[in-house]
Amino acid sequence: MNREGEQKRIRDTSIKVITTDYAKGIFWKEEEHPAVSIGCMSLVKPYPERKRQQMKGFGGAFTEAAGYCYSKLPEEKKQEFLQAYFGREGLRYEVGRTHINSCDFALENYDAWAEGERNPAHLDLTRANRYVLPLIKDAMKLCGDRLELLLSPWSPPAEMKTNGEMNHGGRLKPECRRDWAIYIAAYIGKLREEGLKIRYLTVQNEPEAVQTWDSCVYHAQEETAFLRDYLSPALEEAGLSDVKILIWDHNKEIIFDRALEILSDPRAEKQIYGIAMHWYTGDHFQGVALTKETFPDKEIFFTEGCVEYSRFEDSDETAKAEMYAHDMIGNFTSGVSAFFDWNLLLDAEGGPNHAGNFCAAPVMVTPDGQDFEKRLSYYYIGHFSRYIEKGAYAVPVTAYSAYAETAAFVNPSGQRVVVLLNRQDREIPVEIGEQGTGVGLVLAPHTVTTVLY
Questions:
Q1: Mapping DSSP to helix (H, G, I), strand (E, B) and coil, where does residue 18 land?
Q2: 268 with 262: CB under 8 angstroms?
Q3: Terminus of the chain with fewer CB atoms < 10 Å: N or C?
Q4: What's the 3-state SS for 354-400?
Q5: Could you report the per-residue pLDDT of 260-291, keeping only the tens digit for each?
């Protein structure tokens, strides 16, 4: 479309503005604005013709803790919870992450060995069927096969590890690499038999962390050898070569270093779909952008982030929510194509967690255990997940001020989506649009706004 045609399209479009302002008690307030002529002094300008990464979806983690909390809710509250995350009036999640064996947000350590048997090809999902799978299957009643899942292991069974336990790091014994790969493939196969759409797999959750909970250390050479020589072949032998493998699944500060090390192996590179990352060591958006620039054909997924009580328990609701929006804007403008939040639901304490590693979640159970409440972060996430559709493209956007934090997208229909965050204590004027036509707004202090046109 030429400049005149594009200007007419925008001028003839009713511009929708959605705002969340916690101080005023406003959540996802929608207003229609006519398109007007805009100037250049406070301009926020997307470039929709410059398509970057294609978005794969938004979602959260189906942990045992989330499933346990969900199981205790009254039936009507379960339905409200599902609608809040997966319904059209909620966050519209279409992807999710879950764990192979236990993780820290489980009631205890456990694995999937069948009773009295240690055959990695024959596993028992009795424990997953207790809390995790019921929650996933209930979500599928709303999403159907649109709900795509990513799996991540926190630890192999204790006897496969050098330290003889699932916690406190340790490594996968070299002689157990094939059995562990077969175990992972068998676990995926069992979940598919249950009707779950397993689309993605990370090699190991946080492979450079020795945690007091479920953990296993892989240095880059170990991760490369395991996925190249054991994991990928095991998936192929099991008829699961369509499962897409992502590496790293850890913090952003060395995402580029890790990707460079592993993807320099030609055989491993062909087996890798992308790189997964977490946020616990800070922004490092430049490292994410460098990784995407260097490996443009590899996807980058944000696979975990939460507000840890060990560091941020005293932060207020606004600060917690702004952590999410700031990180999402920075990640998406740097090349990230999918967002997986951490626990979908936690109790009032921030658990259960068998290692005492409590944190906040966007939705948390009330102290009496009979209801849940949506935290401000829930609404901030919704400014992205409700309006950026699967298949949308991230596009460049320029802003006159760094204080107007922004990310822009084009949905499959051609609709523009611009998300703006104001973390300042003052108002920020903005004019959003293209070809001299758009909408002028004043972003109130500590608010998030989504503009659709």
A1: strand
A2: yes
A3: N
A4: CCCCCECCCEEECCCCCCEEECHHHHHHHHHHCCCCCCCEEECEEEC
A5: 999 999 999 999 999 999 999 999 999 999 99
Whose structure tokens read 């800070």? 282
Residue among 308, 226, 205, 320 nearest 268 (CA): 226
306 and 324 Cβ atoms separated by less than 8 Å: no
Interacting residues of 217 by C-beta distance below 8 A, sequence separation 6+: 169, 170, 171, 207, 208, 209, 210
Any residues with CB less than 8 A from the CB of 58 and at least 6 apart, and which?
91, 92, 93, 94, 95, 338, 339, 381, 384, 385, 388
| pTM attached to this predicted model | 0.96
| 3-class SS of residue 134 | helix
Angle at 45 between CA 43 and CA 46, to 5 degrees: 165
Q: What is the DSSP string of 67-121?
A: HHHHHHS-HHHHHHHHHHHHSTTTT---EEEEEES--TTSSS----BPTT---TT
Nearest to 232 by CA among 282, 290, 182: 182
**Strand-pair category, 372-374 with 363-365:** antiparallel
Tokens representing 65?
């803790």
300, 272 in Cβ contact below 8 A? no
Which residue, 331, 390, 328, 298, is CA-closest to 57?
A: 390
Of 217, 179, 223, 221, nearest to 201 (Cα)? 223
Q: DSSP for 210-265?
A: --SSB-----HHHHHHHIIIIIHHHHHHTT-TTSEEEEEEEEGGGHHHHHHHHHTS
Residue 195's Cα: distance from chain center in Å?
A: 22
- pLDDT tens digits along 215-236: 999 999 999 999 999 999 999 9
Three-state secondary-structure class, residue 304:
strand
Q: Calculate the alpha carbon distances from 117 to 105, 108, 114, 122 in Å.
A: 26, 21, 5, 8
